[in-house]
């Protein structure tokens, strides 16, 4: 008990707890948010993630991520089983701003997909990060 009665030790314990909380803060705040453009690129390149664009056909044709598959959100519930052959394959869901992808994530997780991520900021966030999009078969 003498250890806890010494004020120097209490200050050191407080510093350790505060520094641990500050280190954990970014991880805790990221929970529930989507995948950044850089993290999505790594997931696509390293683990062959399936990129699923859930926007309208017109928005998809106007520009989408390279290698993205199109499946409108309205059709997702009925065709969720066709997204990937292996349900352990990572799936990245892309919408316009990142809002609708959260609902699609929940739908795909319910369908049995183990790893589903929404792209943070959607296609808008992807473009703001300076990442390429494909229009009519031409990368831009």
From TrEMBL:
Residues 45-135 form the Rhodanese domain. The chain crosses the membrane at residues 6-28. InterPro entries: GlpE_sulfurtransferase (IPR050229), Rhodanese-like_dom (IPR001763), Rhodanese-like_dom_sf (IPR036873). Signal peptide: none annotated. Keywords: Membrane, Transmembrane, Transmembrane helix. Coiled coil: none annotated. This is Rhodanese-like domain-containing protein. Pfam families: Rhodanese (PF00581). It comes from Robbsia betulipollinis.
């Amino acid at each position: 008990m003498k250890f806890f009665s010494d004020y120097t030790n209490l200050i050191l314990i407080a510093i350790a707890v505060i520094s641990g909380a500050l280190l954990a803060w970014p991880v805790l705040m990221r929970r529930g948010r989507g995948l950044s453009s850089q993290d999505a690129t790594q997931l696509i390149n390293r683990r062959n993630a399936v990129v699923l664009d859930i926007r309208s056909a017109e928005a998809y044709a106007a520009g989408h991520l390279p290698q993205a598959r199109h499946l409108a959100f309205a059709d997702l519930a009925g065709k969720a089983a066709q997204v990937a052959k292996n349900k352990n394959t990572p799936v990245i869901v892309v919408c316009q701003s990142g809002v609708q992808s959260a609902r699609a994530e929940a739908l795909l997780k319910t369908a049995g997909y183990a790893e589903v991520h929404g792209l943070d900021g959607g296609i808008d966030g992807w473009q703001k990060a300076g990442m390429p999009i494909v229009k009519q078969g031409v990368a831009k």
